[in-house]
Amino acid sequence: MASLQGSNIACETRPLVLIHQWSSSNLNFNDWLQARFRLLEPNHPAFPFLSKSCRALVCVGAAPLTSENLRQYPSLELVVGTSTGLDHIDIALCHRSGVKVTNVGNAFSEDVADYAVGLYMDVLRRISAADRFSRTGMWPVMGSYALGSKLGGKRVGIVGLGNIGLLIAKRLEACGCIIKYTSRKKKPDIPHLFYANVSDLAADSDALIVCCALTKETRHLINKDVMTSLGKNGVIINIGRGALINEKELVDFLVRGEIGGAGLDVYEDEPSVPEELFGSDNVVLSPHRAICTPESMAALQNVVIGNLEAFFANKPLLSEIKFE
Amino acid sequence: MASLQGSNIACETRPLVLIHQWSSSNLNFNDWLQARFRLLEPNHPAFPFLSKSCRALVCVGAAPLTSENLRQYPSLELVVGTSTGLDHIDIALCHRSGVKVTNVGNAFSEDVADYAVGLYMDVLRRISAADRFSRTGMWPVMGSYALGSKLGGKRVGIVGLGNIGLLIAKRLEACGCIIKYTSRKKKPDIPHLFYANVSDLAADSDALIVCCALTKETRHLINKDVMTSLGKNGVIINIGRGALINEKELVDFLVRGEIGGAGLDVYEDEPSVPEELFGSDNVVLSPHRAICTPESMAALQNVVIGNLEAFFANKPLLSEIKFE
């Protein structure tokens, strides 16, 4: 591994950065970080003593960073997350320990918003399903494929109106959708109708787009009661985290036709996708890739390097998250 | 058939309307037209003499209405088309004969614009392809699916900036795309950059979205020269008519990787879809269904009935096309 090359890791002048990741991760962070930083991974021979003095850590992808992990690094001052949501990091402990935490800020927001809209269009207009229909040669046989449903006029309930939610709203407004939302609190200066309760939002919406952070409070926020409120023509799009939805109940509702359809980029037990849905034409099943563009990957590099460089230069961090 | 029920077709007071369609059409126009009009189809026993006095004709779907057909109806004053493009109707002869022609106006425009954007998102972000990847259980095996490409910042060349083209532009601007266009002539009061030549537009674009009318002049407008100008990362979306593109050359360019991808709703020889593309992940193959929503079907009924009622009441037609 490039980060282990040479024996002078303790002597170099580049700042030392802990890399915390699954061994199977293929995000190749080392390739672009090592030009600027000395990288210390748990399998490095010098790890046991160098890690004690490390001030900054990069948490790659969704590798869990637990209280047990954090207690191994007594000098830690900064955790650099590489995603928008940081539910895999023990943020409460970081807060109590005075460790600052950064996420990717808005680096992924546009791509995720586009993908949410793409999934919703796909479910409503049945694009993936119609593509399957064409590829299997069914058009000349069947004559036509089932109708979809028009985007314009749909009442779309956005669950979590942060930066991504606002970008989704902007896109769907251009298509004539009516935007409503729920969030921890009503946003000032936002014209869209606010609902304090997600079930009330669902009852007044044709679709829910789930893009809030996963916390103890939002885990299984979308459950059978919310889906019952949404109703049998309702569509659910999830580009947040799998556990925001009770997946077993979602699958039951889809299989029984008790909601209209779903576009899912995230799942409770990734990379497992519920096999019960593999034959369904009213779902689009995406393998957690709403951020997967070269442009987002470049933006990720910029914000991770920017946060680390700012930290070591005692400058303001680019995307520090606020503890609440 | 409901329109043939009873023997009093010549005696009723409802206005008489010729129905011109393929026998295999499943658009069920009769069901909703016969409440207001007497419908006369070619297989009706009274057709030979009643057709001579018919003043209005509904041309269902893409059934060709040729000069030979038109000459059978000497009293014809109105042809009601049921699509946006009327390339299947001999409009020049209608013009010379003083027969007015209506299309569906803007009844389908929003749905077609949404579908164009949906196809473009799908090709760029590889949504259908990633859905196939998930459904075949490849995610746990392969770890991840290939990157797509970001929508924001893409230079999108719209070929034909009519009502549909403008709605596409509005949607893609909300996603951060840069809109350019070609059209018969530069549009006043349009901020987007105009190109007189489609090859020049292609050379300055990351994607072409083809949504112009099919005429003698636009047949095979998108050919190998245009595709060469567009380049190997370029994407083509076609929601206009299949023959706007030289399909054989398009397939060659896609198979050889000389353009980046395509989202096709229309084909030169429908319902045939080029089988060479069935295995390609950089294309989305849709069976001519950009208008296929219940909302568009309802809007179609309204505009067809509205045009017929206006005609028989000597009022202005809702969506008369202008001869140029």
Structure explained in plain terms:
Chains A, B: Pfam families: 2-Hacid_dh, 2-Hacid_dh_C. Chains A, B: InterPro entries: D-isomer_2-hydroxyacid_DH, D-isomer_2_OHA_DH_cat_dom, D-isomer_DH_CS1, D-isomer_DH_NAD-bd, NAD(P)-bd_dom_sf. Chains A, B: Belongs to the D-isomer specific 2-hydroxyacid dehydrogenase family. Chains A, B: This is D-isomer specific 2-hydroxyacid dehydrogenase NAD-binding domain-containing protein. The structure is a homodimer. Chain A is α/β, with parallel strands linked by helices and about 325 residues long. Chain A folds into two domains: about 1-105 and about 295-310, Rossmann fold; about 110-285, NAD(P)-binding Rossmann-like Domain (Rossmann fold), CATH 3.40.50.720. The model of chain A is unreliable at about 1-5 (pLDDT under 50). The longest helix of chain A is centred in the last third of the chain and has 19 residues, at about 295-310. Chain A has twelve helices and twelve strands. A seven-stranded parallel beta sheet of chain A has the order 8-7-6-9-10-11-12.
